[in-house]
Amino acid sequence: PAVGISLCGANNGQLIAGDAMGNIVEIDPSSKKTELLVEGDGRSYVFNLACGWDGTLYGATSGKGLVAIDPTGSVVWYNEFNGLKAKQLNAVCPDREGNLLIGSRDNGLFVFKGNNLFSYGKEWGLPGDQVWAILNTDNALWAGTESGVAFKPINSEGHFQEVKPVFPLQNSFQVRCMAKAAGESIYVGTL
What we know:
Elements: E1 4-9, E2 15-19, E3 24-27, E4 34-38, E5 46-51, E6 57-61, E7 66-69, E8 75-78, E9 89-94, E10 100-104, E11 109-113, E12 116-120, E13 131-136, E14 140-145, E15 148-153, E16 161-163, E17 175-180, E18 186-190
Antiparallel strand pairs: 1-2, 2-3, 3-4, 5-6, 6-7, 7-8, 9-10, 10-11, 11-12, 13-14, 14-15, 15-16, 17-18
């Protein structure tokens, strides 16, 4: 890749990298050989990559929507032309039930459940409509936005609940990444 923007480990032990030109490349860690999986358009960053339980690789891009690459190498794009109401995406995260969680630039959080698409925005309790980070824990779905963090208990039909930071933050609270450590703590990286 030109400049690595996102990385993830594939189920087959390979490393997957996305770059600022929209390319997605598979890298063999032992031989350092690379294989181009998706050729970019030169304009759309690959902001986030994730591997699903079935081995499908997902890439959230800054201008072309969501790309899915199945284990056979077949590529499918999802965007406003086939039901996904955004093409500028920031994050993607498969959950344990086989659903796909997608963070968008301006349209909140999308959840693909089979062939059904659900969306969550400010009206559902998200602090903002730019979802930059998604974390799925054993008991909650977490969304990091340009204005903070919110969570929604798993299997809950209710709204997201905003979380206030433990430490006061300077300037902004734009959440870019989240991780769960041992115990119940959720760690948040901000810009």
